[in-house]
Design a protein that fits this description.
With about 90 residues, the chain is mainly alpha-helical. It has one domain (about 10-85). The protein has 5 helices and no strands. The protein is globular and about 35 Å long. The N and C termini lie close together (about 10 Å).
């Protein structure tokens, strides 16, 4: 996934859009657990016009690498709260 700045270093509107991205990821993970199609859903969303706008407003470039990272993230079913804590503490994602 692209480098995500810590909340204190981002503009308020970026924080809002980052929360939308985290919600989309959380919803896709839930769909992956319940129906098995969460990874496909996040790829579809990230490639959509709305998804690209939200990602850009969050400070994330919505390129192929980003989409693949989101898909991998959802396939691993990593909780967004746990991942965000790891990123903030400098541990990174494994």
């Amino acid at each position: 996934m692209p480098d995500i700045q810590t909340p204190s270093a981002t503009m308020p509107h970026q924080q809002l859009f980052l929360s939308v991205v985290f919600t989309a990821i959380s919803d896709a993970i839930l769909d992956a657990k319940l129906r098995g199609n969460g990874a496909d859903d996040i790829v579809h969303w990230a490639n959509s016009r709305d998804g690209k706008i939200v990602l850009r407003c969050a400070g994330i470039e919505p390129g192929q690498r980003c989409v693949e990272g989101l898909e991998t993230f959802v396939r691993r079913r990593i909780r967004t709260s746990a991942a965000f804590t790891k990123v903030q503490s400098g541990m990174g994602l494994v």
